[in-house]
Amino acid sequence: MSLLDIKNLHVHYITDDGTVKAVNGIDLTLEEGETLGLVGETGAGKTTTALSIMRLIPDPPGKIVDGQIFFKGQDLSTLGTIAMRKIRGDQIAMIFQDPMTALNPVIPVGDQIAEVVKLHTDGISMADAVKRAADMLEIVGIDSGRMGEYPHQFSGGMKQRVVIAIALACNPELLIADEPTTALDVTIQAQVLELMNGLKQKFNTAMIMITHDLGVVAEICDKVAIMYAGSIVESGSLRQIFKDTRHPYTKGLFASIPDLNHKIHRLTPIDGLMPDPANLPEGCAFSPRCPHATDICHKEAPEKIEVEPGHIVCCHLFRKGGEE
Amino acid sequence: MSAYLEVKDLKKYFKTPRGMLHAVDGLNFSIEKGHTLGVVGESGCGKSTLGRTIIGLLDATGGQVIFEGKDITNADKAERMELRKKMQIIFQDPFSSLNPRMTVSEAIAEGLIIHKVCKTKQELDQRVSELMDTVGLAERFTMSYPHELDGGRRQRIGIARALALNPGFVVCDEPVSALDVSIQAQILNLMQDLQEEKGLTYMFITHDLSVVKHISNNILVMYLGQLVETCESDELFEHTLHPYTKALLSAIPTTDIDNRKQRILMQGELSSPINPAPGCRFAPRCRYAEERCKMENPVIEEVLPGHFVACHRVREINDMQ
């Protein structure tokens, strides 16, 4: 049994202006201790996927319209609010993108960490919870003497460390990190990634790393799933995605990144823009921007094809036997 | 030939309740016409302040800015007005740098109207539609408001506004940082095309070394208001000399999974620019720092031909004599 098994997940936001199809039938599995990189541009549905696992989709307007999310065999998508509250923050924790807004500005950081511990540990005394909070701060590299300080007294990188301490305080089995380093400078990003890598190994936590930065994925992930307009267009091991790129969108993403090691005169961006999720094109959602699109791409949605063990591509180019 | 833009010992300090904030502290450099200078540094190193001081949005505390051979540091209002036609800026955040109550065409026309460039309404409309075409904005967006457009299109409006008066020099303050990678590549290509077409000179401010490598002739690396290393773009990546630049380069995550580089992890974070202590500003985070580094500020010296570095121990740590 996998730690996490998402089957055919559909999430829609139903608004007066129409239905926004944010996530359209994604499948994901994650084993214990594994790290999955969920990659895509703004609006691809990465965060919606993460929020569905946490059951934090704002409802209304958001709704899981179809599919199941199995966590250790239990379907989270139908779980009651109270049962979910026990899992959230304890067995599944989340690190949010912006450390500036994720913390409560009027509560000292030590108390914010202790709160999680107190909530999820039966019969623990406040003194023990505070002690645990102090230990957590030391683990993420902050002097526990700063427990009484408020978030505004910390820098961005330090605040993100506090958020990580809160997320890991109850030893979660699954950690969802939503762009944890996007708001940070590169040198601070390097420190935080190093820290997360170390902690992940120490606690054997499985992790979903949501990012738009393929460099970050290369540093930290074992598996990769590329999202586009609410679907996973390509997934596989890190090596399969980075060294044997198949889907035209994934190829486009790699070509868009300026490379430090090679001199190129011009970048080759993907033409056009991501489609409006309230008005997705018929057939393959990438077809209007795809250089290889044929008639069938504009009519039929492509199926998932396993081009090699574990490497799944969702594209009409690979229909017959996995060859282009 | 004298340089197109020359900056001499430029200083910009801000008064704060806790003391003087040294945002830009004694910078010297020049840019040739038609070239791109990439200015790189972490947030808080003074790179945006530098850009704003050069084009006169902020008054310099000391030093000189010489543009086309003329000292423009203390230009008066009328002179500034004239300079606006020659020097422009593209801002970082296309969400906050546009007036939400102006349509695309009004936003682009604003500069043209202020400077009375066009004589008739027809001429103005003509010029606006030319500009929209130049930056790749479809005509159907003429009457759209910024909130109706995505980040990439908004940044195109910012570029059109900057180009409206046909400037020669454009400060680009992190123009692609807020954009997705595929859109980022579109905007970078557009800016390169415009440079080739119009012979523009760019000062490209960014925290992303991989972006500047791609677009710059020369690169200047800043740390807490001071210059730490500057040379030609290729040279910087081939012979990185300053310990800060080395650490900065090694911190960039790479997509090459077979050639992992050895990461130099920097300890701590940027120290405060308010009343900075004497000595090298990078010393508290530098693994090569010794007594001397904490006592005196290193001067910029030409270590290799055309390659300037400010570090006491540059020759030692790079095995050079």
Structure explained in plain terms:
The complex is a heterodimer of chains A (324) and B (321). Chain A is α/β, with parallel strands linked by helices. Chain A contains eleven helices and twelve strands. Chain A has helices spanning 46-54, 81-87, 99-102, 109-120, 126-139, 156-168, 186-203, 214-220, 238-243, 248-256, 295-299, and strands at residues 4-15, 18-30, 35-39, 62-71, 74-75, 92-95, 174-178, 206-211, 223-228, 231-237, 304-308, 311-314. In chain A, the strands form two sheets. Chain A has an eight-stranded mixed sheet, with helices on both faces. In chain A, strands 2-1-4-5 form a four-stranded antiparallel sheet, with helices on one face. In chain A, a hairpin with a 2-residue loop joins strand 1 and strand 2 (18-30). Chain B has helices spanning 47-54, 77-84, 104-114, 121-134, 151-163, 181-198, 209-215, 233-238, 243-251, 291-295, 314-317, and strands at residues 5-16, 19-31, 36-40, 62-67, 70-71, 87-90, 169-173, 201-206, 218-223, 226-232, 301-304, 307-309. Chain B has two domains: 5-86 and 167-320, 3-Layer(aba) Sandwich (Rossmann fold); 100-163, no CATH class. Chain B is built from eleven helices and twelve strands. With 321 residues, chain B is an alpha/beta fold. The mean pLDDT of chain B is 89. The two termini of chain B are 33 Å apart. The interface between A and B is large, with 44 and 41 residues.
